[in-house]
Design goal:
mainly alpha; Transcription Regulator spoIIAA; six-stranded mixed β-sheet; two-stranded antiparallel ribbon; 35 helices
Length: 743
Amino acid sequence: MKWQRRLPMCLTSGRAWLCQRLRCGRSCTALQESRGNMRVTIAQTLQHYEKKNLPKDICAGIIIMAVSIPISMGYAQIAGLPAVYGLYGSVFPILLFALFSTSPQFIFGVDAAPAALIGGALIDLHIESGSEAALKVVPVLTLFVAVWLLAFYLMKAGKLVNYISAPVMGGFITGICTTIILMQVPKLFGGTAGTGELLELAGHIGNTLGQIHVPSLIMGVIALVILLAAKKLIPKFPMAVVLMAVGALMTKFLPVREWGIQTLSAVQTGLPRWKAVDLSAVPLKDAITISLSVAVVIMAETLLAENNFAQKNRYRINDNQELLAFSLGNFAAALTGCCPINGSVSRTAMGEQYQGKTQLTGIVAGISMMILLLCGTEFIGFLPVPVLTAIVISALLGATEFELAVRLWKVSRTECLIFFGAFFGVLLLGTINGVLIGIMLSFTEMIIRTAKPARCFLGIQTGHSHFRDLKESSSIHAVEHVVIYRFSSNLCFANVSVLQKDIEDAIREDTRAVILDAGGIGSIDITAADCLERLYGSLKEKGIRFYMTEHIAEVNEQLRRLGLGYMVEEGCVRRTIHIALKDMGIRRPYPLEGGVDNVEKSASRKRADNRVQEFVWAFGSEAEQEMEKQIARQIAHLTSDKDVEELIHGRWSHMEALDEDEWLEHLEEHLKEIVNISGKDEETLAKRLEEHRQEVHDRIAQEHPELAERFRERRHLLDEHLRERRPEVYELVIRLREKKDQA
């Protein structure tokens, strides 16, 4: 009858018979999720649109359109097409992507990596850039790229990005940004954009340095400085648009071209024409292989970048639908004669800078480009290249994530290495190779981390019954004749030897049993299972019982599938450590090593024993420094509120008595500083601190008299510390205590 109770819920989804056959509500859910992954939502980011975002989206869209002009035209030429095709690629592909994308901020457009790959492919095919043959071949390659991306969508390949770590994403995006910046730098000097990887780019920059055009450099540097300053001082102001307008006016009314400063080439008026692709222009084998590599780059680069922005700005995207959006955008590009289209980090960074909130930004950018192509192509010819280059570089500098590398350096040198592996991989070897290097490093790091799992040996605190790490306190002791071992990781080929060695090293002559706390083990592979079997057999030969405890029920099923079901049948797999000890005939209170008294204690005494210093527990070896930081922040706050009582009691709620006592000692060290800020009398303030300390001691002595002596001993140590650090304050405190004793 259980399945009948679930049946109505399944009927609501119209799949009652299937749910009955599967006899599992979870299967129904899984099916729903599977179908949901293929469900396409149009204009998702525009649903429930908030009108307050309209000015920001429109402004950001216009800026992105303007910034796209030089970028798109330059990359189109790299791909072997006339410059105007870059603008064509910024119309319909962007509009389609905006309608089908689930990312509220990412922008599609003609970009470096696909353009460079297509340009390289033309060289390999012996086709001259900008020729009639190139105009026929490039759309064919773009069409096959779109087909591959559609296939990736149908295969749900988008989920592969979930296996790429944040350091890889950060290094990848920073590598791309740095590469594009290095490509653009020569244009600040009056030269042309670079191509290739770091060595080629560095060589090109070096050659350009020997032929610096000073007016271009001055204009570009001034524009860049203004943009960077505006980003800091007035981040919401559309300075990029202002600079473009100023640059166009300068070209109109000043002899900019006579000074030798480059402006963009004028382009013909009109929208891109839709036309069929000539599939015979490229051999099928070449079309398939070239387009596959380009499609992989587009998928990897764009999904990584999209997820990076999503994580940074705290929203989620549907990776699989993004592949569909990529595909549709590239179909539009192919049918309008363009090169493959990619997600653009620089345009997205620009949109983020000017607070674009939805894909209306992309729609406005596409429509603005249409209007420009219909009515404003003359304007393009007035835009100075150095100004536009500065705008692009400014946006890319904001998209780099070197601050993540700094954080990783402080937290995990290994993850920092992964970041720079992906970064230099992209910079030195190109986009796809950088991604592959980052992924390999990420998986290597994961294996290394798995091979060094968190683990410890457990014992009992005297008078208590719960198990804790033996290293946690000197009052925790091992259970007599028993090794209790906690392993906090899935058990696999990479770490099972660690478990085996730890247990074997812990065994002594009087050991009667080994209990594995497997609460942190969610899965076991076949290598680990074989090792467990050997360990079990070895212990059995020595007359030592072996137990697995605390794990989820699924692990038992895995043991049976792996051929270790007999361990379950023989009673070696028990639900808790307590049951395993009971099976051995060991009952509470458990006998502890060294003959330590383990008489059951009262609830009050247990609470007293368990009073752990919060700061020490939370911050470990940095507890002292953290307490100083907390006090420094509160002392600084005194300048506005003058509330000394709040400072005395501390803002860290529910501080334990030991912490509160130490807090007061730290405050005494800052007595002079507190007096100066608060305006309180020094003696009055010192007296208040002593009174509060006595309140703490009296409260503890009343609630837990067994700790009173411990507090007195600790007070002596703190006094000695105070005398060393602040002798003048120590003398004042001693005088106050003497006055109190005399009274």
